[in-house]
Design a protein that fits this description.
The complex is a heterodimer of chains A (351) and B (391). Chain A has 351 residues and is mainly alpha-helical. Chain A has helices at 2-20, 51-59, 112-116, 142-146, 171-175, 181-185, 196-209, 251-350, and strands at 37-42, 88-94, 97-103, 122-124, 130-132, 153-154, 164-165, 191-195, 229-232. In chain A, the strands form four sheets. In chain A, strands 8-1-9 form a three-stranded mixed beta sheet. Chain A has a two-stranded antiparallel sheet with strand order 2-3. Chain A has a two-stranded antiparallel ribbon with strand order 4-5. In chain A, β2 and β3 (97-103) form a beta hairpin. The chains are: A mainly alpha (351), B mainly alpha (391). At the A-B interface, α1, α3, α4, β6 and α8 of A face α2, α3, α5, α8 and α10 of B.
Chain lengths: 351, 391
């Protein structure tokens, strides 16, 4: 978590801000805050009376539901939380008869919503509650996408000021030293509030004392990196509408890899792309030089050829003119000699 | 003579395209009013289980992927030294800029308080979030794309000095553009690495960021071919000799590259399948759909591209480009809507509403109109006579 914050700081605030914060050793394990509180829900005790729903509705000053809280026919259909309901109890037909389960925010130790929020609107408080600050929220709903329990809900009917709504573990009441509304109201002690460490001990003890009554698993001890709100059940958790395939990796662990790749790309790409550019420039330059050289060579070769040809032609021309001169001379000589011969002939006739 | 020309001008305003565009624009404005007076609930099918729908799946994921032609083309021309693709750079950069601008515009509809979109950068930084990376990169890249687009604008306005300054920064801007594109094409995929419990295992992978990045290259290359085909007829009178002379060569070159990258994408998808040992899912219903995506929209276009390049058959290459573009949309829809929340019962699954479809069409229409307006006014398909031959 801190190492990734450190990397984030590098990107966001420049190296100076990051270097001012000493980097923590990378192999250190960061556990939950020592003051992390939570709630243990025991499905073997819940009777589905919906009083926790009513208490939640009252302490959070939410609008009254369509059907009153003492109307238990509501339980015939599985419900989910919404922007006007922070907790619901559902009824499940299981292999061991009817069981009820309360659903609300599980207040993860490493919350997916907080990890996913790009304005840090969510905060894991030292006392364990995961709170939300509407004053910075952009309304992107990535928290809703990210939450493995699909807990954050949204005011879809608010045109300009929609907020994300969810259970706060009654953070304001905790600050006053009170219990969460639902825990205070539960008539069957199905909900136990306390330090998370203590709750795990209590849960283990119950499983040990009544091995036939409980499934040997505390839901939330390790799921998604651990949650502050944990569950005990008499039947496999999948039978009371809970997913058992979430794994133990927290949301931040899942995204650590892609986040870590960011500064690497920023550092490496300029070198890689600069290299590719340099190679392509060099290739272009070499190709250009070769072209120029080839043209020069061709010109030189062509010049030589032309010169040779010229020489040959000149030689030929010389020979030809030489011959012509010879012929002319011959002719001239012949012409010069011819009259003499004639004269000689006539002289012979005269004598 | 003058009577004739006015008649032609009048006639050209009432083309079928313009009429359809007008209808979409009016419908879009109506839905806009509804969204900002009644809230998201009145115009979308989004609910507490499905917080992201068509506006994220199409407008954001597909919009960004299909704008990848900007960085692929400018990288090919300025970094890989393939100067003969120079004529294709400006249309691609313009498409990318408009694409990103419209992504931000569409987000204004989807997020609850759009005027707070700068908050994550200027008010409070959630640096652990991959969405923070997306936001930061989109903001910076949109600025970079705008600067890369300005030479055309300054040439049109006759501002020589400032135009020459920007052109000098081309190399730096291109490298910056590729870095930013790499980061947030991949970070859009990385958004989904946080929900292994909600995204079907065939689509969920630790490699999602790599898948998104590599497929965005395919999308970029194909989009350049696809768009060149679309704009060839209406814009033909604006295209200069250089553009037209190089156009077929560009299609062949990009086709060859797309064939190879699609092949590589297919390979890494198989590696992802093997890494998570998800073979057994192929025998399920989702598996059949996954195979349709992989064989019909990755392997097939890769093969068609290869055949088209070998035979110098531009028609086959164009079909391959269209198929790839469609395939990218299919893939992004699968990840954001079809395979997302796969574990929920059918009654709780999401399907887009008419309002959402209207706004998506509205955004695309604005994009096409803006592209048409700018490319008829500014030197996009031709070189400005004052700057001929400057590469």
């Amino acid at each position: 978590m801190l190492r990734r914050t450190f990397l984030g700081l590098l990107g966001a605030a420049g190296a100076s801000a990051a270097l001012a914060t000493p980097a923590k050793a990378a192999n250190k394990h960061f556990g939950p805050h020592p003051d992390t509180h939570g709630v243990l829900f025991d499905a073997t005790r819940c009777i589905g009376c919906r009083q926790c729903e009513q208490a939640c509705n009252e302490v959070n000053e939410l609008p009254a539901p369509a059907k009153p809280f003492d109307d238990l026919t509501v339980l015939d259909v599985e419900r989910r939380t919404d922007d006007k309901t922070y907790t619901v109890v559902n009824k499940y037909q299981t292999s061991k008869g009817v069981f009820f389960r309360k659903n609300q925010c599980n207040h993860c130790l490493e919350p997916a919503c907080a990890s996913a929020c790009f304005v840090k609107a969510f905060k894991k408080q030292p006392n364990g509650a995961v709170t939300y600050d509407a004053s910075v929220c952009v309304g992107c709903r990535y928290c809703m996408v990210a939450c493995p329990f699909s807990i954050p809900t949204y005011e879809y009917d608010e045109p300009l000021t929609p907020r994300v709504r969810k259970c706060t573990m009654c953070y304001p009441r905790l600050q006053e030293g009170k219990l969460p509304g639902c825990v205070e109201r539960c008539p069957k002690e199905a909900l136990t509030f306390g330090l998370r460490e203590e709750l795990i001990k209590i849960a283990r003890k119950r499983i040990e004392t009544y091995p036939d009554r409980y499934v040997d698993h505390i839901y939330g001890e390790h799921e998604m990196g651990g949650t502050s709100w944990m569950y005990l059940s008499g039947v496999p958790f999948s039978e009371i509408g809970m997913r058992e395939d979430l794994g133990t990796a927290s949301a931040p662990e899942l995204t650590a890899g892609p986040l870590a790749a960011v500064p690497i790309v920023v550092g490496l790409w300029p070198v890689l792309l600069g290299g590719i550019y340099a190679v392509s420039q060099r290739n272009a330059k070499v190709a250009n030089e070769e072209r120029v050289k080839a043209v020069k060579d061709a010109l030189r070769r062509a010049g030589d050829e032309a010169e040779k040809k010229l020489h040959e032609e000149l030689g030929k021309a010389e020979q030809a003119s030489q011959r012509r001169i010879e012929v002319e001379v011959k002719k001239a000589v012949e012409e010069a000699l011819a009259p003499k011969e004639e004269d000689a002939g006539t002289n012979e006739e005269e004598s | 003579m003058s009577v004739e020309t006015t008649a032609v001008a009048k006639k050209s305003l009432f083309t079928p395209f313009n009429l359809i565009a007008t209808v979409i624009l009016i419908a879009g404005l109506v839905v806009t009013v509804m969204r900002f007076t009644g809230g998201l609930g009145t115009v979308t099918n989004l609910d507490q289980n499905n917080p992201w729908g068509l506006w994220i799946g199409f407008d954001l994921l597909c919009g960004v992927a299909l704008a990848a032609g900007g960085y692929t083309t400018s990288a090919a021309c300025y970094l890989f030294g393939l100067k003969r693709y120079h004529a294709g750079v400006r249309p691609a950069i313009l498409t990318a800029f408009l694409g990103y601008a419209l992504v931000v515009f569409a987000l204004g509809y989807d997020v609850g308080r759009p005027w707070r979109l700068p908050y994550p950068i200027f008010v409070q930084q959630g640096t652990t979030s991959l969405l923070f990376e997306v936001g930061l990169c989109v903001m910076i890249y949109l600025s970079v794309l705008f600067v890369e687009f300005t030479p055309a604008l300054f040439e049109w306005l006759g501002m020589k000095k400032i135009r020459n300054i920007v052109v000098k920064a081309t190399l730096a801007l291109t490298i910056l553009g590729v870095i930013l594109s790499t980061l947030h094409q991949s970070s859009l995929g990385a958004l989904y690495t946080i929900v292994p419990s909600k995204l079907h295992p065939l689509w969920y992978s630790q490699y999602l960021p790599v898948f998104f990045f590599v497929s965005s290259i395919c999308a970029g290359l194909s989009m350049v071919i696809f768009e060149g085909t679309l704009s060839h007829k209406p814009m033909h009178h604006l295209m200069d000799k250089e553009y037209l002379d190089n156009h077929d060569g560009l299609i062949l070159g990009f086709g060859k590259a797309a064939s190879l990258v699609l092949f590589g994408y297919f390979a890494i998808k198989v590696i992802g399948l093997a890494y998570d040992n998800n073979w057994h899912y192929l025998a399920t219903g989702y598996g059949a759909w996954f195979l349709v995506e992989m064989l019909g929209f990755v392997a097939l276009p890769s093969f068609l591209y290869a055949v088209g390049v070998r035979d110098k058959n531009l028609t086959v290459i164009r079909w391959a480009a269209g198929l790839t573009v469609l395939g990218i949309i299919v893939n992004r829809f699968n990840i954001s809507m079809v395979a997302f929340n796969y574990q929920l019962p059918a009654a709780q699954r999401y399907f887009p509403s008419w309002g959402e479809i209207t706004i998506s069409l509205f955004v695309v229409t604005i994009g096409v109109l803006a592209f048409r307006f700018i490319s008829t006014k500014m030197p996009i398909f031709y070189e400005h006579p004052d700057y001929k031959g400057e590469h």
